[in-house]
Amino acid sequence: MLVISDLSARVAGKEILNGVNLEVNAGEVHAIMGPNGSGKSTLAQVLAGREDYEVTKGSVTFEGRDLLAMRAEERARAGLFLGFQYPVEIPGVNNVYLLKAALNAKRKAAGEPEVDAYEFLALIRQKMKFMQMSESFLTRGVNEGFSGGEKKRNEVLQMLVLEPKLAILDETDSGLDIDALKVVSTGVNSLRDPKRAVVLVTHYQRLLDYVIPDQVHVLSGGRIVKSGDKSLAQELERRGYDWVMGAQVA
Amino acid sequence: MSAALRSFEAQWRARSTDALQPIREQAMQRFLKLGLPTPRDETWRYTDLRSVAAQSFEAAPCEARGAIDPHASLSLVTPELGAATVVMINGCPSLKANTSAINGIEISSIKELSRLDPKSMARFFPPATDADQRRWVLLNTALFIDGLHLKITRQVAEPLVILHVSTGERADEAAHPRIIIDAAPGSSATIIEHHIAHGDIAPLNNSNTHISLARDARLEHYRVYATGAGASHIDSLDIHQAHGSHCKQFTIALGGGLVRSSLEAHLNASGASLDSYSLLVGHADRHVDCVNIVTHAAPDTRSRQTARAIASDVSRVIFNSKVIVNAGAVHSDSQQSSRGLLLSPSAEIDTRPQLEIHADEVKCAHGATTGRLDPDMLFYLLSRGLDRETAQSLLVFAFLADVLTGMSVSSARSAIENALISQLPDSQILRKFR
Contact at 8 Å (CB) between B139 and B31? Predict the structure, then answer.
C-alpha cells in the first residue's frame, strides 16, 4: 500500500530525513519509534504533504500512485489520514462543519453524492459516543479550548468518520491518561481491517500494549536503523534508545 | 487657501441664518482658521485628502432622481422585524407629519427643535476645538442643512434604521448629514445607520452622529458603509455616556472608495461601559482609515475595542485606537484588540493601539497583530481533504467571527455576512457552506 524508498527531506534548510526505506502492506499495523529529534514527525508531515518540508531525494508510492506528486488535499481524498501530534485550534470554524466538509470532499472525489445532513448527524453522534466525547463538542470551534486529551480524541474521531485506507498517527498517545489511552486505542483497533493500514508514530511503548503492531521500526538520525516484531518495542523499553543507536555505530 | 476651503466659505456666506447661528458661526470661524487636516496632523497621518482639497464643492441637493428603494443594496432588517426606517437624502431628513413618534422614539428635525428651544439643543454641540480629528465636524456643524434628533424615551425592542442615501449628478457636491441620538434614563434601543449610494455618483459625505446616553440607558448602534467604489466618506461619531450606561457600537466598512471613520467616546460617570467593534474590509483600491479615541473620565468605567481588518487587492486599512484614562479615573478597565489579515502582497494594514494613562490602579491591555493566513491552520484543513479555496475562505470567515457574533440583530448580521462574503476571494464557495 505504502512504499517509501530512500526518502530524504529538509526542513528550514536542515536535513532531517536521510534515506528512509519502509513498506507497509494492507492489513498491517506498523509502529515507528525513536528518540526525540529523530525525524518521526517530519516523516509523518512529509507523507501528509506539508509544503514547507522539502523532499530532496527518494520516492513514495501510495497504492501505486506517486504520493509526492499529489497535494495535501488530494492525498487526504485518496484515503491518507494524518493524526496530528499538536492539533491546531481554529476558533470560528465549527468542528462538525469541518467533519462534514471533509467527508463530502472525500465522497466527491470518489464520485459519491454528498452526505445527507440527518444521516451525518446520526453518524457523528454514534462515533462521538464510541469515543466518549461530550455533546458540547458539536457546537465548538475546531479544537477550540480542548484539553490535550480531547484534541487527541477529536483526531481519532475524525479518522473514524473519514475511514482512511492509511492512517498515520503522530504521537496520538502522548499526553493521555490511561483511560483516554484505552479509548483512543479502541478507536484505532476498530479501524483495523484487511484493506487498511495504520502507522503509529510513538516515543513510548505503552500504546503498543493496546494496539499490537505487526512490525516495529526504530528511526534514528533520519533513517530506519532497526526493524523487528512487537518484541523490539519491549526490548527498547527495557534497554533504551541508546542500545539501538550504539548497535548502529558498532 | 485651498479650493475646497474657498468653496465651503462661499457656501457659508450664501446660506440663511437659523436658530443655531452662534454655534455654527463659532465652528465655521475655527474651521476657516485651521483649514483642512493634512497628513501632518496626528490622526490624519495615513490619509491624504489633497485631491479633496483641490476640488470646489457645492451643496448636494436634498432630492434624489428616481424612487429610492429602501431594500436597494443591502437590506439590514427583514420586514418581519417591524423595524421603522427613516430616510436621509444627502443629509436632508424626509420626515412625514404625524409619523414623528415610532415605538418610543420621538423623531424630530434638529432645525425645528432648535427653533423652538435653542438652549436645549446646545448640549449636543460640543464647543469648537483645535483637535484635528474634529476638523470635519466643525464644517458639518457650520453647514448641515438639517438633521435628525432621536429621543429614546423607553425600552424599544425593534431596531430603527436610518437609511443615509448619497446621490448626485456631479462629483463636486458635498453633504453633511447630522444625527443626534438622545437616550433617556433607563431607556434602550437599537439604531442602525446604513449608508448607501443611489446612482453611480455620490457627493462627498461628511457625516456626524452624536450619541448621549443618560443614566442606565442602553444602546446598540451600527454604522454600515455600503456606498460604491467612487464614494468618499468622512464620518464621525461622538458618544457621551452617563452613570451605568452601556453602548455597543459596530462600525462596518464594506463599501466606499475612501472611508475615514472616527469614534470619540467619553465615559463620563462610573459604571459607564462601551463595547466597540470594527469590521474593516479593504477591497480593490479602497482606503479605510478608522480612528477610535476612548476617554475614561470617571472611576470604574469599562471599554472594549475589538477591530478586525482584512485587506485584499491593493487596498489599505488603518485602525488607529487610543485609550485615555484621565486623572482620578481609578479602576478604569480597558482592552484594545486589533487583528489584521492580509490577503494580497500589495495590500497594507496599519494598526496603532495607544494608551495615555494619568491615573493609578487601572487595568489597560492592548494587543495588535497583522499577518497572513496561519499556515498550520491551512495545512490542517487541507490534510482533511478540503480544497484550498474553501480552506482559505473558511479561515477568513473565522477571523471575523469575533465581531459578527457580537451582533444582536440577526438579520443585520446575516446581511452584513452576505455582503462581506461577496467581497472575499472565492465567495461562491464560502456562500454555499453558511
Answer: yes
Alpha carbon distances (Å) from B168 to A83, A182, A248, B175: 59, 71, 83, 10
Exposure of B111 in the CB half-sphere (CA atoms within 13 A): 16
The strands making up A53-62's β-sheet, listed across from edge to edge, are: A14-24, A2-11, A53-62, A65-66
Reported for B371-376, long-range contacts at CB under 8 A and 24+ positions apart, including other chains, are B371/B340, B371/B341, B371/B342, B372/B341, B372/B342, B372/B343, B373/B341, B373/B343, B374/A88, B375/A52, B376/A88
Picking from B383, B386, B398, the nearest residue to A101 by CB comes out as B386
As a dihedral over the C-alpha atoms of residue B390, residue A49, residue A141, residue B336, rounded to 10 degrees, the angle is -90
Q: Which residue of B has its CA nearest to A155?
A: B384
Element (H, E) at B137: helix B135-143
Q: What share of chain B is helix, strand, coil (3-state, %, to 5)?
A: 25, 40, 40
Q: What is the model's pLDDT at position B98?
A: 46
Q: What is the pTM for the complete model shown?
A: 0.83
The pLDDT value recorded for residue A250 is 40
Which residues in chain A are closer than 8 Å to B384, comparing Cβ atoms? Answer: 76, 98, 101-102, 105, 158, 162
C-alpha closest to that of A96 among A41, A130, A47, A138: A138
Instruction: Report helix, strand or coil for A54.
Output: strand
Q: Rounded to whole angstroms, how far apart are CA atoms B45 and B47? A: 6
CA quadruple B56, B59, B60, B61: dihedral sign: negative
Q: Where are the domains of chain A?
A: 2-249
Query: What is the DSSP track for B364-423?
Result: EEEEEEEES--HHHHHHHHTTT--HHHHHHHHHHHHHHHHHTT-S-HHHHHHHHHHHHHT
CATH class in words for A2-249: alpha beta
B376, B379, B395 member nearest A72 (Cβ): B379
What is the interface pTM, i.e. ipTM, of the complex?
Answer: 0.95
Instruction: Give mean pLDDT, residues B410-417.
Output: 83
Other beta carbons less than 10 A from residue A143's beta carbon = 21
CB pairs under 8 A between A and B: 74
- Does residue A115 sit at the B interface (CB-CB below 8 Å)? no
Determine whether the interchain pair B375/A76 forms a contact, defined as Cβ–Cβ distance below 8 Å: no
pLDDT tens figures, B57-98? 999 998 877 777 655 556 677 666 667 888 899 999 987 654
**Cell representation of residue B108:** 424630530
Cα–Cα distance for residue pair B182/B185, rounded to 1 Å: 10
Cβ-based neighbour number of residue B120 at 10 Å:
11
Q: B323: which strand partners?
A: B294, B355
Task: Calculate mean pLDDT across residues A128-133.
Answer: 91
- Produce one character per residue of B153-169: b if its CB has 16 or more CB atoms within 10 Å, e if not: beebebbbbbbbbbbbe
With an 8 Å Cβ cutoff, the interface of chain B facing chain A consists of 374-377, 379-388, 390-391, 394-395, 397-402, 433
DSSP3 helix / strand / coil % (chain A, rounded to 5): 40, 30, 30
